[in-house]
Amino acid sequence: MKNRFLISVASGKGGTGKTTIATNLAFIAAEKGLNVSYLDCDVEEPNGHIFLKPKIENISAATIPVPVVDESKCIACGKCRDICQYSAIILLGKTILTFPNLCHGCGGCTLVCPTGAITEAGRELGIVECGIAGKVRFVHGRLNIGEAISPPLIREVKKHIPSDGVAIIDSPPGTSCPVIQSVRGSDYVILVTEPTPFGLNDLKLAVEMLRVLDLPFGVVINRSDIGDASVLDYCESACIDVLLEIPDDRRIAEAYSRGQLATQVLPEYAEVFASLLKDVFDARL
Amino acid sequence: MKIAITAKEPSLESEVDQRFGRAKYFVVVDTDTNEIEIYDNEINLNAVQGAGIQSAQNVARFNVEAVLTGHVGPNSYRTLSAAGIAVFTGVAGIVNEAISMFKSGKLKPVNAADVEGHWFI
Predict the structure, then answer these.
(1) Treating both helix axes as pointing N-terminal to C-terminal, what angle do A230-237 and A197-213 enclose, rounded to 10 degrees?
(2) Mutate to test the interface with A, among B43, B44, B53, B81 (most CBs of A within 10 A)
(3) Residue pair B6/B70 in contact by the 8 Å Cβ criterion
(4) Does B118 have pLDDT greater than 90?
(5) Which of A109, A111, A115 is nearest to A97 (CA)?
(6) How does pLDDT run across B42-68, given as a tens digit for each residue?
(7) A144 closest CA partner among A41, A7, A45
(8) Model confidence pTM above 0.95
(9) Cα gap A92→A67, rounded to integer Å
């Protein structure tokens, strides 16, 4: 039996409260004496550090391998062009062109080149920062400005998941490649939503995604007293566990606006998140 | 010689599509014989990335020597030049008129992209 429990916090819709849930859950789990890591995989705009306030101890560059072509060895066979799904390497007549900013770093072109004309050079996508936030091990990725490809950086962040303890992943929003890269391999996924038509629509997309990935999940409804009952009705009809409903409490918003954890400044929410943590652990069994 | 014009409709009477990579159609004309071929570019219109590069590779396969369009981005321009295709930007109006302008030598080729990538109207 493995000693690690990997929880991802995700949502179809942005701005529902993923970071609020993920950071408070990490804090409470550490308060309970668990060995906790928090990994912010929302590398396009990581914000968990605002609340956990880590002391960064290590910074490393995250690179992907991009092709460099030795034209003297190239025989213009076109195999590299044919395998590339992203038009990052093309052949026009006898001229090879590469577009490093479109390359996803799969290494396919290097593998199929029959003459060894392609070697790889690292291209920096962003950085991974590791540190400690109180009792929580902290890791996040920061994608360079203007960069369009985040999954390889998310992969680098996830290499820091320890082999034991509780690891909490703060996922980017949506249902596209960066989200799949973030939540893949999780033991449990918490989907955060809000009780609005937008929240419901995007929740359904996220549920579809998790069902394809075959990952167990439950739903947290944030600001549960705004909007309508459609999210609750949907969860009931689709047999989805609603783990927690958090009211639209101005004090949470105020704490958030000051960069504070609700669980740290509002004792009743420490209990709420402790019970969420327990429910997630119970759901695993 | 053969030239390609970006078009919003599959016809000589169409408006010139201002986008190259995500143009709806390419009208390819042989300026010597006036023979016309029309290519649907829908697959690149909806591409996630690399639309300009793909479109430029396709245009190169049509064996054209010039492209007439509204704007080209850096990836399109690089690919078209590597293929030895002359690029004419700033072309607007009706495809037929653009061809006449080209034939009468009123258009001048450019030597750089005129917009950033992902440019759109």
Answers:
(1) 30
(2) B53
(3) yes
(4) no
(5) A109
(6) 988 888 788 999 999 999 999 999 999
(7) A45
(8) no
(9) 17
Interface test with A, best of B43, B61, B75 (most A CBs within 10 A): B75
Question: Which residues of B touch chain A, with CB atoms under 8 Å apart?
Answer: 49-50, 53-54, 57, 60, 75, 78-79, 82-84
In the predicted model, what is the mean pLDDT of residues A80-88? Answer: 94
Report if residue B61 sits inside a domain.
yes
Sequence ranges of the domains in chain A: 4-62+127-284, 71-116
Helix (H, G, I), strand (E, B) or coil at B26: strand
| CA separation for the pair A113, A257 (Å, rounded) | 54
Smallest Cβ–Cβ distance between B50 and the set A86, A93, A95 belongs to A86
- Which residue is associated with the tokens 């927690």? A244
**ipTM score over 0.85, yes or no:** no
**Residues spanned by the domain of B15:** 2-103
Q: What is the pLDDT of residues A91-147, one digit of tens each?
A: 998 899 999 989 999 999 999 999 999 999 999 999 999 999 999 999 999 999 989
Alpha-carbon gap, residue A216 to A191, rounded angstroms: 10
* The CATH number, out of the four listed (3.40.50.150, 3.30.70.20, 3.30.420.40, 3.40.50.300), of the domain defined by the range A71-116: 3.30.70.20
Residue A269: count of CB within 10 angstroms of its CB: 21
Which residue carries 């829908």 as its tokens? B42
Our count of domains for chain B comes to 1
Q: What are phi and psi of B49, to 5 degrees?
A: -150, 165
Residues A12, A192 contacting (CB under 8 angstroms): no
Structural domain includes residue B117: no
Identity of the amino acid at A5: F
Q: Assess whether pLDDT exceeds 70 at residue A165.
A: yes
Q: Quick check: B119 pLDDT over 70? A: no
Query: B60: distance to nearest CA of chain A, Å?
Result: 8
